[in-house]
Structures are given as C-alpha cells and as structure tokens.
Amino acid sequence: MPEPRELFRFAVVGLAAYGVTLLGDYSLKLTVLREKPVTALFLATVVATAFAYVLSRRWSFAARGGHGRLREATAFFAVNAGAVAVNLVPPLVSRYVLHLSVPHVSFLAQEIADFVAGMVLGTLSGTAFRWFGYRRWVFPRSAPPVGVPQSGEAELVVERLPGPGGGQRDGQVVEVP
C-alpha cells in the first residue's frame, strides 16, 4: 500500500509536470510545429520529464533510493521513455487511425480530439506507468540493514565476547526465536 504522503507528493509533481507539458505542447503546436502535433507533445514531455526528475528526487521520493545517482537517473529516464511511448499511443490512434484531423473533421473537433487523446488519456496511462516504474525500478525501498528482521523472520544477534588479553574477538551469531 503506498504511503499517502508519497502519493500526494507524486501527484503534486505530476501536476506541475503536466503544466509544463501542457504549456510546452500548445506553445510548440500553435507556433513552430503546427504540422507536427505528436512531435510537439513529445518535445514538451521530454522537458517536463527532466523537470519531474529533479522534483521527484528531491521531494517526492527523497526517502527512497539507495542506487547511485547515475543509475537512478538512467532508470528514471528509461521508465519515462516507456511512459512517453504509452502517452503517445492515444494521439497517434486519434490522428492516424481514426483520422480525427483536418480535412476529415473541423479544426475544433481536431483540437478537442488531440486534447482528449494526448493530454487526458495519454497522460493518465503514462502516469499509471510512471507510478509503478518509479516505485519498482527508480526509487525502490532500500533493503533493510543486515540483522534487522523482517516480519516473521528469526532475529540474528551478534554477540561480542572478550578475547585473550582483554581484546575483542570475532562475534558469534546466535539465532533468537
């Protein structure tokens, strides 16, 4: 069961990244990438992903981790590459399978279809993929320290006995039920 605070922070970071995606997507789509709406969404999502990594690492999943930063960042961007692919499926289907684009439909219908497919359906499916991926591969719970029992496991205790000359010798492992 996810921790409520962690889930809340994930949602806040996700909403902020969604804002970056939305602003970037429409800024590009309505100016320099008018003929390439899926490319505009892709570029906006890449920028939002970098933004989300910084916030996720420093705030949402700050209590998790345990991997080196390079491995963690690589896993983060790999999970997000998968999420971007998941996110792009609905707008690709909308535009190129269902032909919900001009001249087949009106400009307004095209824009509504793009928004619903990319910014609603794509974002929801990509978010679910990210939540699972972040918790599983990017920011997993660190393994418990050696000697700390998991529920239902026997506890291990290391006992230090004085060695010859009053010094310490190697400990003996004693299992305590």
Average pLDDT works out at 82
Helical residues, percent? 55-70%
Total count of strands: 2
N-to-C span = 28 Å
Main sheet summary? 2 strands, antiparallel
The SSE order reads HHHHEE
What does this structure look like?
By secondary structure, the protein is mainly alpha-helical. Helices cover 63% and strands 6% of the residues. It is built from 4 helices and 2 strands. It has helices at 4-29, 37-60, 69-97, 107-138; strands spanning 155-159, 172-176. A two-stranded antiparallel sheet has the order 1-2. Helix 2 (37-60) runs antiparallel to helix 3 and helix 3 runs antiparallel to helix 4 (107-138). The protein is elongated. The two termini are 28 Å apart.
Short description:
By secondary structure, the chain is mainly α. The protein has helices spanning 4-29, 37-60, 69-97, 107-138, and strands at 155-159, 172-176.
Keyphrases for this structure?
mainly alpha; two-stranded antiparallel ribbon; 177 residues
Write the layout of secondary structure elements.
Elements: H1 4-29, H2 37-60, H3 69-97, H4 107-138, E1 155-159, E2 172-176
Helix pairs in contact: 1-2, 1-4, 2-3, 3-4
